[in-house]
Design a protein that fits this description.
The protein has 416 residues and is an alpha+beta fold. It contains 14 helices and 20 strands. Helix content is 31%, strand content 27%.
Length: 416
């Protein structure tokens, strides 16, 4: 009989992971409080038990004779996953202390400073006269762009503060300098205590409505700044993660590149919702999702030797394209199969389906899909991206195309 793996949450980000587990011959079970969540449509079995009901989940695991617990890329679920695994004696790669450090932006910033890693200049919300505008306000304990806004002056401060607090469990708000330099993301894989830089990309964004957080349109691999990062900052991150006593798992850190230094601002001790790991899989052949699934069942991240396989410099170029759509109700999505069959397109993950209502302006809810593309050089990559953007459409009930302006591939041709 195949092993049974319980997924805590059937969000759209879980679908690809459930499908991967099934490809591995694992019997998949999903539970959450949403009766028709996307993951339940692809899992072998599902339940409507809330993922925060620890006692009920423990009973479910015992009754169904489940062998392991797996969390989709949902940061808020990590403490619950840890507690459930502790009760059941099942493996989970992150300790409660590590989760706390990586999900609380204030604690993460202090940890970075202790290891010589640059962080964004911060202001004290209790001393508004000292704030130099424009600034970004964000909840200290949330992710996915929720509760983030740009504050251009004192008259907006109270509103922006209230927005950030509404998304914070602790009602704690960070006030940071608005950065205008290049954005980048670094990805690490940790296997049996060995910390390896797996990739680095440049994150391109499109500004939304005034005051809202920027949204990503494309992530380009490898980053223009990767060699500089490997020389100046990589060892600092490796030292930091080693000092946290991390033995296994995956990590990503978003930041800005300013004055030759990486300025960190957003960590994640998990697979990213944007699934940058799928680019590393397509380019270097390392399947981080498979490794984490194996760990959930065995306590070991087996299957790939990252010491031998990891190459963050890449031998090709790649892009994770994220079409942004306007708020509204989706009637139909076109071009998916044509894109999926394109040479060089390695994956396409839909964030929404027909019938979904997109309502959270300025958050990652506006990302319609994540499309993964690789090519031998920048011109070939630019051509593939242009073709994907030509084919991909999302329409509302009135026949209006909800897709906003996409990634300008002139950036590839001119900067890389």
């Amino acid at each position: 009989m195949s092993e049974k793996l319980l997924f805590l949450g059937g969000t759209s980000t879980a679908v690809n992971l459930i499908e991967r587990a099934k490809e591995m011959g694992i019997y998949t079970i999903v539970t959450d409080y949403i009766p028709d969540s996307p993951g339940k449509k692809v899992a072998d079995k599902h339940f409507d038990i809330s993922t925060t009901d620890i006692d009920a989940i423990v009973e479910l695991v015992k009754k169904e004779k489940i062998d392991g617990i797996f969390l989709p890329p949902i940061e808020s679920m990590m403490p619950f996953g840890r507690k459930i695994c502790d009760v059941l004696g099942m493996p989970y790669y992150a300790s409660m202390k590590q989760i706390e450090l990586m999900t609380n932006k204030e604690q993460f910033k202090r940890l970075c400073v202790q290891h010589g890693i640059h962080v964004i200049e911060e202001y004290d919300i209790r001393k508004p006269a000292d704030i130099v505008y424009p600034v970004v306000l964000k909840p200290v304990d949330n992710s996915g762009g929720r509760g983030i806004s740009v504050c251009s002056g004192p008259s907006d401060l109270e509103h922006c503060c209230q927005l950030a607090q509404s998304y914070s469990k602790t009602k704690t708000v960070l006030v940071e300098k608005l950065m205008c330099s290049d954005e980048a993301v670094v990805y690490y894989t940790i296997q049996d205590g060995f910390v390896s830089l797996s990739g680095m990309c440049d994150r391109y964004t499109r500004k939304g409505e005034t005051g809202l957080a920027t949204l990503p349109t494309a992530y380009v691999f490898p980053s223009l700044h990767i060699k500089e990062f490997m020389t100046e900052d990589n060892q600092k991150f490796i030292h930091m993660f080693s000092n946290m006593n991390i033995q296994n798992g995956v990590m990503f850190v978003q930041g800005f590149v300013e004055g030759g230094s990486f300025v960190a601002y957003e960590p994640g001790f998990r697979l990213a919702g944007a699934r940058g790991d799928l680019i590393m899989k397509a380019v270097n052949g390392i399947d981080a999702a498979e490794m984490l699934i194996r760990h959930a069942l065995t306590g070991k991240m087996d299957g790939y030797d990252i010491k031998k396989l990891d190459n963050p410099l890449f031998e090709v170029m790649a892009c994770k394209l994220t079409p942004i759509i306007k708020c509204g109700k989706i009637a139909k999505i076109e071009g998916v199969e044509e894109i999926r069959n394109m040479q060089g397109v390695t994956d396409i993950l839909l964030n929404h389906q027909a019938g979904d209502v997109v309502s959270q302006e300025g958050t990652l809810d506006q990302v319609a899909a994540r499309i993964y593309i690789k090519a031998a050089h920048k011109d070939a990559l630019a051509e593939k991206i242009d073709e994907v953007q030509r084919l991909f459409h999302v329409y509302d009930n009135s026949g209006n195309d909800m897709v906003e302006e996409g990634f300008d591939t002139g950036v590839l041709r001119n900067r890389y």
